[in-house]
Structures are given as C-alpha cells and as structure tokens.
Write a structure and sequence with these properties.
Order of helices and strands: HHEHEHEHEHEHEE
CATH topology: Rossmann fold
Helix content: 40-55%
CATH superfamily: Vaccinia Virus protein VP39
CATH class: Alpha Beta
Number of strands: 7
Bound molecules: S-adenosylmethionine
Number of helices: 7
CATH architecture: 3-Layer(aba) Sandwich
Radius of gyration: 15 Å
Length: 184
C-alpha cells in the first residue's frame, strides 16, 4: 500500500468515532475480499469522509475495478472526494450525493454489481437489500457493517438475507459486526 494512503488512513482513524468509520480490521478484510474475488463493479452505501472508500478504492486499483459510493450529505461527499484525490484513487471512484434508496430505485436495470458494502441508514438495510438484489448475479458478494453493534435496527435485514435461499450468509465477529453473503 502506498505511503500516502497509509498516512491518510492513520489520519482519519483519529476521528473515527466522529465520522462513524469502519474499523481498520474491517477495512483490511473488505480489501482482501475484493482482491481475492477480483471484484470489478463495487457499490458502497454510506461514504462519510471516505475512510472505508479508501480501503475499497485501493483494492479496486489492484483488480482494475470501480467503486460507486453514495452519501446523503454534500459536505461529507466533498470531504471524501478530496480524500480520494489525495490518495490517488479518485480515478476508480464515483461519488454520488443523495439518498441511497433513491439511487437504487432509479438505477438503470442493466447495471450490475459484484460487490456491495452496506453502511448507510441502519433501518433501511432491508430496503437496500431488496432494491440491489435484481442488480446482482451469481457470485456477487454483499457485506454490511454494524450487524452486531446495531443488531436491533438491522434485524429485519439479517432475517431476510439469512432466510433467502439465493444467498449463503455469515456474521463475522469483527468490530461492530460484519455480515458477508454470496449470491448462489
Ligand atoms: C456509518 S457512516 C459510513 C461510514 C463509512 N462507510 C466509513 O466507514 O468510512 C454512514 C453514512 O451514511 C450516510 N447516510 C445515512 N443515511 C443515508 C441515506 N439514506 N442515504 C445515503 N447516505 C446516508 C450518513 O450521512 C453517514 O455519513
């Protein structure tokens, strides 16, 4: 990993709680998954200041892939965009400002993703899952943060994906709890 990226991640870790960023362990795990599965088209819901996006974007540079990341607040989107530029990964990332549900509702029907990271509004996780499912194909990976730390709020999503025979799912005991699922 390039020094500029390591420096930026370390800088953002000092304000991790203020921006609700994922843990370093979770970022590293998502990066390993992207590199192992040679992900090409990734989607993140909930950009914040771009901390997780840096992990995802750095990994996608390796695979030749692309990330679209959606954030409700314009100010956070602009901070994230700046961080991606500093890290030299803005060429593989498209930042979208707006509601994650709205983005998914108006997605072109031919758009597909092979990796999704859900980390926006916790009560909306189930809506995101239902809306993104038609854009996934066999082998696509869904990940979602905070499934232990915010279990009650995301339980309807957990129940739905666990009961869906199109998916094989596990919850990992990473900080905050990470759900990982593969489309069969
Ligand atoms: C947990 S933080 C994301 C942290 C980020 N993934 C990281 O680890 O660096 C959730 C973000 O989602 C955004 N958000 C909340 N509700 C949203 C919605 N309905 N649509 C889009 N973004 C939303 C919040 O503004 C916040 O910045």
């Amino acid at each position: 990993m390039e020094a500029v990226i390591i420096d930026k991640l370390e800088e953002l870790e000092k304000t991790q709680k203020d921006f609700w960023n994922i843990s370093r362990e979770t970022g590293n795990f998502l990066s390993i998954i992207i590199k192992t599965a040679h992900i090409q088209n990734a989607l993140e819901l909930g950009t914040s200041n771009g901390y997780s996006g840096i992990w995802l974007g750095e990994a996608l540079k390796h695979t030749g892939g692309h990330l679209t990341t959606v954030e409700f607040y314009e100010k956070r989107q602009s901070v994230a965009q700046n961080n991606f530029e500093i890290c030299g990964i803005s060429d593989v990332i498209t930042t979208v400002c707006g509601s994650a549900k709205h983005y998914l509702e108006y997605l072109d029907e031919n758009t597909t993703f092979d990796f999704v990271f859900i980390d926006a509004s916790k009560p909306e996780y189930l809506d995101y899952f239902k809306l993104v499912k038609p854009h996934l194909r066999k082998g696509a990976i869904i990940t979602a943060d905070n499934v232990i730390s915010h279990q009650q709020k995301v339980q309807p999503f957990i129940d739905c994906i666990m009961a869906d025979s199109d998916f094989q799912t596990e919850i990992l005991n990473l900080p905050a709890g990470l759900l990982i699922s593969v489309m069969l």
